[in-house]
Design a protein that fits this description.
The chain has about 210 residues and is of the alpha/beta class. It has 5 helices and 10 strands, in the order E-E-E-H-E-E-E-E-H-H-H-E-H-E-E.
Length: about 210
């Protein structure tokens, strides 16, 4: 199936934005543009967190949004979402925060290992798994935020500036981790970024 998007939005309260594209399984889109151009607003419209003024978002034959209504709620769209600012439970461990992605989606455990295990390894968090979130650095919190999005066993990933808080020398390994993770899920996937060059090896399309 493909995702068909043809919508009119407002960025903030008064800046109009029109976006139209078709995205197919396996594609990785980079959404680029200046601050305030509507990148995150578009992502939130795909997630079902923002309602288009006009137009529609469809996945195959299912209409998710048809302005000005949201017909399919966010939790039923199959997205794993990592916002730019990590939203972790500050008093809980890295492992618990990553597990939460699966728990909230109702994904059952696979054997005796903790739910979070695969994605803790993927994003280099093994040594931090018992550390509480309030004691993480910005980069560690960002990796935990990403691991939780992937652990939700999504169909699509929506990642908002996933490397914004990651140290420069760690970015290549993070891109590799993202590439390996994205290939495990159907897609299409969407990455908002000011730095498309960081993702050149994994993106298939770019729009701004």
């Amino acid at each position: 199936m493909s995702m068909h998007v043809d919508i009119h939005l407002f960025v903030g309260s008064d800046i109009p934005l029109r976006v139209a594209f078709t995205a197919r399984p396996g594609e990785v889109f980079l959404v680029t543009g200046a601050n305030g151009s509507g990148k995150t607003t578009l992502l939130r419209a795909l997630l079902g967190l923002v309602c288009p003024v006009r137009g529609e978002v469809r996945w195959g034959d299912d209409t998710w949004s048809k302005g000005p209504e949201i017909l399919v709620p966010s939790e039923s769209r199959g997205f794993g979402y990592a916002p730019q600012t990590a939203t972790l439970l500050p008093g809980r461990s890295v492992a618990h925060n990553v597990d939460l992605g699966m728990i909230l989606r109702g994904v059952p455990p696979r054997g005796p290992q903790p739910l979070a295990g695969e994605w803790i390894e993927q994003f280099g968090l093994r040594a931090l798994r018992e550390r509480v979130a309030r004691n993480l650095s910005g980069g560690e919190a960002a990796r935990t935020n990403l691991a939780r999005a992937f652990a939700s066993h999504p169909r699509h990933l929506a990642l908002d500036e996933p490397l914004a808080h990651v140290a420069q020398d760690a970015r290549p390994s993070m891109v590799d981790a993202l590439a390996r993770g994205l290939h495990k899920f159907e897609g299409p996937h969407f990455i908002v970024t000011h730095h498309p060059e960081w993702f050149a090896t994994i993106s298939s399309r770019r729009f701004r």
